[in-house]
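Exercise 3.2. Students should predict the tertiary structure of the chain below and write it as structure tokens, then compare their answer with the key that follows.

Predict this chain's 3D structure.
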Amino acid sequence: METLYSLIAHYGYLAIYALLMLGIVGLPIPDETLLTLSGYLVFSGHLHLIPTFLSAFLGSISGISISYAIGATFGHIILIKYGHYIHITEERLKRAHIWFEKIGRWSLLVGYFIPGVRHIIAILAGASELQMREFALFSYSGAFIWTSTFFSIGYFFGHRWERVFLLLRHHLMIISTIVFIVIILFYFIKKIFDNKKKSSTKKEN
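Answer key:
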């Protein structure tokens, strides 16, 4: 916390932008704490509302875009070359692409609230060749919701932000994890029904 205070005190909005970008990319930076602290600093009059929020939001989408670019540039090649060690094949990558196109893109929306997931999901989205337009629509919307949620805790709850932050983060993580699992289960259940439907159609023909 002291380090975050110090960096923001010295570098202001640039620190918020850079720290969130690096945190989303995967560096061990407490993203949610930083967002909530930024909201609190606006509440206490140390920062201005619009530039602080924009710095946080732009840092978030920059980080997630870098993760996507890493996946799109190197992910597919690396997975094809070394994926067989962890049972990843070209066919499974194609399935991952279909999953993202059909329903997996919704995981980009809720993945922000699950520590570690947002970075990995973005890389997988890039590696599976999900179109940038689709990626941006869902991941940037998720970034806005995620940024607004934690920023608002600091801004509206002021001096009580730490207690509210710990409570809300815990519940949001549980809810987001459940939603994430439901998305995955929905896809597999739908796939099973589709396969049964295809089998029935073939038998009738």
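Discussion points: The mean pLDDT is 79. The chain has eight helices and no strands.
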